[in-house]
Amino acid sequence: MIIGGIAGCTAKTMVAPLDRVKILFQTHNAHFAKYAGTHFGLFKAGTAIYREYGIRGLFQGHSMQLARIFPYAAIKFMSYEQLKRALGRRISDQNLRNFLAGSLCGVISVSVSYPLDMIRVRMAYITPTGGARAQRVRDVVKMIYQETAHRFGVLNFFRGFPLTLMGIVPYGGVSFLTHEYLTSLGRGRFAAIAADPVGKQQVSNRRGRRRKVPELKAWAELAAGGISGAVAQTASYPFELIRRRMQIAGAHSPSTRASAVQIVQDVWRTAGVRGFFVGLTIGYVKVVPMFAVSFYTYEKLKALFDLE
Hints:
Order of helices and strands: HHHHHHHHHHHH
Strand content: under 5%
Largest sheet: none
């Protein structure tokens, strides 16, 4: 679990500024909507945030992101390994096994960490004006809890949760399926250029056991992770966009429940199909290095501690 958590936090920290801009675009923030869809809009928005709020503005909500991502990534990687072994005893098709294990581990991890993600998105969305200080975590938690959209305040932390479960199935399943497929190619058909021989590996532990699979070279591991992230992002992006809109709905109308159907209709009416992919380019810029670093860190830490 610790290895997975470290890998997730390392990757998220690298792309935190991109994530902030992506959330502002996805949620159509009034101050930054003008940059969405323009040439170099990502860099223009990032520059505007930096000028107005400084470096802290680019990392607004990141502390909550780390608090969320450590248990999320830890549970995700741990449950994936366990589910893959368990399903492997019942399912002979490796691709189906990897997809199901990835989907299920995504459902488990997001169920545990969703309230923290809700708080993090609100913190990233809020843009203080007139020199006001940035919202603190406890202020955002109190604000969300006091919204009257639900009878029980705690349910406000789960806005968009059912849609999240729908989106995490292709996201988690496709990411692990693609990564496993690409790494198997690197260790098999393209081992001559992508993998180091087992004898060159410098990993061992007290029992003297060595990993049975060859290590992928750094570029191959990073490429496998990055490609898997891009494919997963494409497969699940419309779900993510609608979920983000639902998560910030309370900031505009605390007493109203925003339905997924209503948001889909609004997006379709204002922008058509392209509206469901607003910010996808930023998503690629963020997700590709994030997945590359996450899988790379996870695999290298497994090698360091001689874990299969």
